[in-house]
Design goal:
Layout lengths: L8 E6 L3 H12 L4 E7 L2 H11 L3 E4 L8 H11 L4 E6 L4 H10 L3 E4 L4 H12 L4 E2 L1 H13 L18 H11 L4 H8 L3 H15 L4 H10 L4
Parallel strand pairs: 1-2, 1-3, 3-4, 4-5, 5-6
């Protein structure tokens, strides 16, 4: 799925707190590249609105009455595979993070994220990219590192076009869950340069998004 060339990314806000829904809607609507098409107070209402409004991205809270975020994400993944779910919640414990990602969420942000980080996350999710809060990215990598090696599994083939030192720096930032802007600040590069490096890294690793890049890099021993 790609950003629509003729309009803004259509977003559905799902959260059981009225004040937060309204504040989030106001925050997003000041950005020309984002259009909030609706808001729901629980998962069941969200499913009905997705059917009616056809959003590109659903900003999904997790702890809600009637139908929680994980159950709703599971349904959306099956019934509307083109709709991207980006979790936005207060909680980043293992009991929230991994069920949400397994259900099909393409990203996981916390409600203390900055406005720019949130908008970047929405746009990235619309492009089909993974968006992970740094603390969540650390949990995912830690969980991967706990997985036992499978002796009989074929070793991945080395890259035909190895990553440069700067691309490795960018890859490590990606694995840490940093956005392009945050990576640029860490590495003292322009955001455009970082974006180009990320594109090259994904192409060289043969993957489509940042989470797959981290997984592939771990398998190759690059992280």
């Amino acid at each position: 799925m790609t950003l629509r060339s003729h309009g803004a990314v259509r977003v559905l806000v799902v959260d059981d707190q009225t004040l937060f829904r309204e504040a989030l809607t106001t925050l997003l609507e000041v950005r020309e590249e984002v259009a909030v098409v609706g808001a729901a107070e629980n998962g069941a209402q969200a499913l009905d609105l997705v059917d009616a409004l056809h959003p590109d991205v659903v900003l999904m809270d997790l702890r809600m009455p009637v139908l929680d975020g994980v159950a709703t994400t599971t349904r959306l993944t099956v019934e509307h595979p083109d709709v991207r779910v980006l979790v936005l919640t207060t909680f980043d414990g293992d009991d929230e993070v991994f069920p949400a990602l397994r259900a099909g969420a393409v990203g996981y942000l916390l409600k203390d994220a900055t406005a720019s980080r949130l908008v970047e996350g929405v746009l990235a999710a619309a492009r089909g990219e993974s968006v992970l809060q740094p603390s969540v990215a650390a949990k995912v990598l830690a969980r991967m590192n706990q997985l036992p090696d499978v002796p009989d599994a074929p070793r991945p083939q080395p890259l035909l076009d190895p990553l440069t030192e700067r691309e490795l720096d960018v890859l490590r930032a990606v694995a840490d869950g940093l956005s392009n802007r945050e990576t640029a600040a860490r590495l003292f590069l322009s955001e455009g340069t970082v974006k180009n490096h990320v594109t090259n890294v994904l192409a060289k690793l043969g993957v489509r998004d940042r989470t797959q890049a981290a997984l592939r890099a771990r398998a190759l021993g690059l992280l």
